[in-house]
Amino acid sequence: MKLTTVGTGTGQVSSGPGWTLTTGGWVQVTGAGATLSGLYIPYNVNIVANNVTLNNDKIVAGGSNSMGVSLRYTSGVTVQNTTIASTDSGANRLMTGIKDVFSDSSGLTVNHCDISNFETGVQLESGLVENNYTHNPGYVSGDHTNGVMSNGATTPLTITHNTIFNSLGQTDDIGLFEDFSGQGNRSITNNLLGGGAYSIYAGGTNEATYGVPTGIVVTGNVFATNYFTTGGAYGPVAYYDHTGTGNTWTSNSWDGTGTTIQSP
User: Fold this and answer.
1) Per-residue pLDDT reduced to its tens digit, 209-263
2) Is residue 119 classed exposed, middle or buried when 0-12, 13-18 and 19+ CB atoms within 10 A define those classes?
3) How far, CA to CA in Å, does 162 sit from each of 52, 74, 100, 221?
4) Residue 31: how many CB atoms within 10 A of its CB?
5) What are the boundaries of each domain within the chain?
6) Is 0.90 topped by the overall pTM?
7) Residue partners of 141: CB distance under 8 A and separation at least 6
8) Strand (E) or helix (H) holding 208
């Protein structure tokens, strides 16, 4: 697809139904049901409306606090078939590819996206992350690199059929952390994962404060050894607590051999 550039130059576009390029240098989406499609967007896309769709776009942003797509108090947003990256993997890396800024957006779907040059690929508390290729993270000193990350919630979150590669020996491909709340109702299924300190942080990172995570389903995932022979630098999973109600670890295996990885 030939993309139309968002900007103020000749042949470029600076607004459309439900969205506009602001003088501050970001795309503001305010129209409920707006669709942004076929655009090359060299700016952050900030969504403050419901039922917005980004489809067949390329978003390029970067810098210390940069976000490719930011969501604020939204529901029903879909980001699909979209490339999200930065200009380089160093000082201009993305802080976050897609971020639910206030951790309260609902119904977010991220599907068939290519996300790279990030500190965190996708940060959200609920929704569906499916069929994406998240890879080649960027890095600046002090980063804690995450493929898909949640800081804590019990609203349903499904992470399925993604390829997530973190070539760095720190943090994760998928991180469920109890930073602000307990973890619950998380489904991690049929993903190809490789790298990080551990490929999965499975929720129980602060049980003394928030209790044992519940409903953590980890099944059918394949752990690659392209960076570390143990999947992540220290192993495939950490902070999985089999005592939590509804927690399951089944049919997870090593790439290449198909050998089953036993429950931690």
Assistant:
1) 999 999 999 999 999 999 999 999 999 999 999 999 999 999 999 999 999 999 8
2) buried
3) 22, 24, 19, 10
4) 17
5) 1-8+30-112, 144-258
6) yes
7) none
8) helix 207-210
